[in-house]
Design a protein that fits this description.
The complex is a heterodimer of chains A (about 100) and B (about 475). Helices cover about 35% and strands about 5% of the residues of chain A. Chain A has helices at about 5-15, 20-40, 70-80, and strands spanning about 85, 90. The chains are: A mainly alpha (about 100), B alpha/beta (about 475). Chain A: GO terms for molecular function: ATP binding; glutaminyl-tRNA synthase (glutamine-hydrolyzing) activity. Chain A: Keywords: ATP-binding, Ligase, Nucleotide-binding, Protein biosynthesis.
């Protein structure tokens, strides 16, 4: 299964990663080698084999669906980490863009 | 004296603290002084917390004077890989996108260690988001091997491995997704232990591949690894994959009579550096001299484990790293639209190796490829888990080299991702099968250490560590 330059550009867009032409070219070469390596799995007979569960841990417990509060110190740190803020509000670029005139 | 106390590790230093021959402040100052002098060249630490460490050390000394010592770790200076959150401190995971991120809360392991009185010297350098086998992928520069500055220390926990090997701390924490504790431990000549998946809470560990990630100790001895493990493991309501498993009770033994050691035939084939092979073979001979039965075992799908890993891991990476979007925290590249903000913040903030894995994972999970890649890999993962379970019914531990090579030169593999990935060949199986595994030093050639890798049964860390320690003592005495 090969991957074309267009495939990579479209995947990079889906993953929201901006790549230059040079980086796209490099990614094409790197990913081709890795995909060729992992393709060895196609030769393994897996009919009737279930998919692995998350882990060998005896896990799968659920916590109660309730809100957890945080301390004032944690709240301050959360606000401090905002890349842009207006008072205690997070500033972010608009989701909907105004049509260009 | 100061040089000597830095080499002691947890057990040795703790003994001196207990006898009043040494104070935590003296020990902490000795490490800080050495870090200040050697870290500019080694680049093992990203942040050093001089004032906090001295304050914690003073507190530990005062507790001891009052007769209220918290135990073996009280006053012991340790280092923390920079992907574990310490509240109020910077946590970068080796990435530009988190260069100025301040941790909001403590990781569960830090909360647990806070109760032991351990002193935190600072945060160690790592491959960006723990992706790499050489610590060359850090956005903050490569870490240097303590015995040869032109070589890598391994990775991704290279900073922690160097901090321990160069006597810059008594012990360190690492994280291991495909070998990131064990391979740098082998390269640097220290002990690196990855517990069973589900033993130690991942809460507050910056996630790489959640179904494989596991925190573990990097230490000067197996006993020290057991000491740190015993305070860090346990079920945690903040990580629903933590297991309610049997308690860890060390079961040290001197001889290995009755222990069956399996050598997986598939692993001992081609592709192992000859010095690595001969060091590990002589370690196996020592296990046999200790009374262990050495047998060849069939471990089918050994060669498929790395391929499974390089599908499942990038899939989880692509999901886990989607949170780094420059909106709520981390680096934001201002741009006119939301889309461009994402593209630039992620494109410039996230380095080449994580980007490569995000692309690979996004591709493998995309419509039309999911069955061929992800679903197929998860099925082969079942076969691998079964193969390990069946081999470990016949033997108690599986032994291989930790890595196929010794520490390689800086730049040697950096442009060839596949050859870098092959570094994980022997370690990755334990992550894919979720089993506990340890690397112990087993010699050196041309001054470069070699590690022996042992894999044990799920949640039976006590038996695994007992074999590792018996070997370590026999080698130390021999």
């Amino acid at each position: 299964m090969g991957m074309t330059r267009d495939d990579i550009a479209s995947i990079a867009h889906l993953a929201r990663i901006g790549l230059s032409d040079e980086e796209l070219e490099r990614a094409e070469k790197d990913l081709e080698g890795i995909l060729r390596y992992v393709d060895r799995l196609q030769k393994v007979e897996t009919s009737g084999v279930p998919e692995a569960s998350a882990s060998v841990a005896k896990a799968g417990t659920f916590r109660a669906d309730e809100a957890h509060t945080c301390s004032e110190a944690e709240r301050d740190l959360i606000l401090k980490n905002f890349p842009a803020r207006d008072g205690d509000l997070l500033k972010a670029p608009a989701v909907f863009e105004r049509p260009k005139r | 004296m100061l040089d000597e106390i830095r080499t002691l590790g947890i057990a040795g230093a703790s003994e001196l603290l207990k006898n009043g021959e040494l104070s935590s402040r003296e020990l902490t100052d000795a490490y800080l002084k050495e870090i200040d002098s050697r870290n500019p060249a080694l680049n093992a630490f990203l942040d050093v917390w001089h004032d906090d460490a001295r304050r914690q050390a003073n507190d530990a000394d005062e507790r001891r004077t009052r007769g209220e010592s918290l135990g073996v770790l009280d006053g012991i200076p340790i280092a923390i890989k920079d992907n574990m959150l310490v509240q109020g401190k910077r946590c970068t995971a080796g990435s530009k996108i988190l260069e100025n991120y301040i941790a909001v809360n403590h990781a569960t392991v830090i909360k647990k260690l806070n109760g032991t009185g351990a002193v935190y010297l600072g945060k160690t350098n790592m491959d960006e988001f723990a992706m790499g086998s050489s610590t060359e992928n850090s956005a903050f520069g490569s870490v240097r091997h303590p015995r040869d500055p032109d070589r890598v220390p391994g990775g991704s926990s290279g900073g922690s491995a160097v901090a321990v090997a160069a006597d810059l701390c008594a012990a360190a924490l690492g994280s291991d997704t495909g070998g990131s504790i064990r391979q740098p431990a082998a390269f640097c000549g220290i002990v690196g232990f990855k517990p069973t998946y589900g033993r130690i809470s991942r809460s507050g560990l910056i996630a790489m591949a959640s179904s494989f990630d596991q925190i573990g100790p990097m230490t000067k001895s197996v006993e020290d690894a057991a000491t740190l493990f015993s305070v860090m493991y346990g079920k945690d309501s903040l990580d629903q994959t933590t297991a309610d498993a049997e308690p860890f009770v060390p079961a040290w033994r001197s001889g290995l009579k009755g222990v069956k050691v399996g050598l997986p035939v598939q692993a001992w084939g081609e592709g192992i550096d000859k010095d690595v092979r001969s060091s590990v073979e002589s370690a196996v001979k020592t296990l046999s001299d200790l009374g262990a039965d050495i047998v060849d075992v069939d471990l089918p799908y050994s060669n498929e484990a790395l391929a499974v890993y390089y599908i499942v891991m990038p899939c989880e990476v692509s999901a886990n790293l989607s949170r780094f979007d420059g909106i709520r925290y981390g680096r934001r590249e201002p741009a006119p639209t939301l889309l461009e903000t994402y593209l630039h913040s992620r494109g410039e903030g996230i380095g080449p190796e994580p980007r490569r894995r995000i692309l690979l994972g996004t591709y493998a999970l995309s419509h039309g490829y999911y069955d061929a890649y992800y679903r197929k890999a998860k099925k082969v993962q079942t076969l691998i888990q079964n193969a390990y379970a069946s081999a470990l019914e016949r033997v108690d531990v599986l032994v291989t080299p930790t890595a196929p090579t010794k520490a390689f030169r800086i730049g040697e593999k950096v442009n060839d991702p596949l050859s870098m990935y092959l570094e994980d060949l022997f370690t990755v199986g334990a992550n894919v099968a979720g089993l506990p595994a340890i690397s112990v030093p087993c010699g050196a050639s041309e001054g470069l250490p070699v590690g022996m890798h042992l894999v044990g049964r799920a949640f039976d860390e006590a038996s695994l560590l007992a074999v590792a320690r018996a070997y370590e003592e026999a080698r130390g005495n021999g």
